[in-house]
Give the backbone structure.
Amino acid sequence: MPRQPGLSARLKLTLSYAGIVVVAGAVLLAVAWWYLLRYLPDNDKGLLFVSPNRFLLSRIFGRAAAVAMAGLVAFGLLGGWLLAGRMLAPLDKIADAARLAAHGSLSHRIRLPGRSDEFRELSDVFDTMLEKLESHVAEQRRFAANASHELRTPLAISQSLLDVARQDPSSVNADLIDRLHTASRRAIDLTEALLLLSRGERGTFTREPVDLSLVAEEAAETLLPQAEKRGITLDVTGTPATTTGSPELLLRMVTNLVQNAVVHNVPGGTVTVHTEPQHQACVVRVENTGRPLPPHLVPTLVEPFQRGGDRVRSEDHAGVGLGLAIVHSVVRAHDGALDVAARPGGGLRVTIRLPGV
């Protein structure tokens, strides 16, 4: 917002320093004047160093005091200007970094040298903020690029199929319609996943008590036919664990975990869903069997569009790469913690801790 022009901080500090010096000098001269003159006779006759009096000393001391006060004013202004400039130099560097950040340059860092003080603490906090902001912006750019790429593929397939149908309407058959339906379904699923991910990151939902054990049973019941089709054993164990949050988002969170555990599994494998209250928190743990995962792959699984190429997946469920990313977003929106670890025998163990009631 526009502001009226005013004095700079350096000028204000300079005037403050000069004012303090002048006031201190005036008090010192006043005290010296008072102590010197109170013990001298009050007449206009006498010789300096022989018989001094108030009249003689005031004429000499008064001129000297005026010169001293003028010198204090000049010294206060000059010294205050230099001292204020030296003290405010770190703020100039911080302001320069803020201007660069305002124009889109987030890679610049202040990195003030020297020992810790208020200005260096401020610069360190600002550097940390810039680092997180740069990381967040880079993540959002990657996300937008990946989302555009993922959406372009089914839309391009749909466009090609429609072009074929327009060129030769007689060639339209059930296979072409099925392929068009599959491409459209994939685009719709990806769009819905993106909207859900955005909703979870905003955290705009009504909170109410939710029993995670019931949520786990509902998710398992929904995915049981899919698990039986693949020969996967699906078990739900544990005790009631109540947290506060969005029932819809929490159900989608657990459903995504169970679906990933079913899809990325080996034939005849198992999926275990366990819930329990633990130290004023609610714990949901989903484990599955599968092939051993490389250590470098596990941390990337919660990033958007990271499908994990080394993982086992069914041919009829390619996924959009947002399953664990949505889980991570929902967990953060509910002030929880997500831990993803590879099981020694293969597969994943995903543990979620949410605040208890």
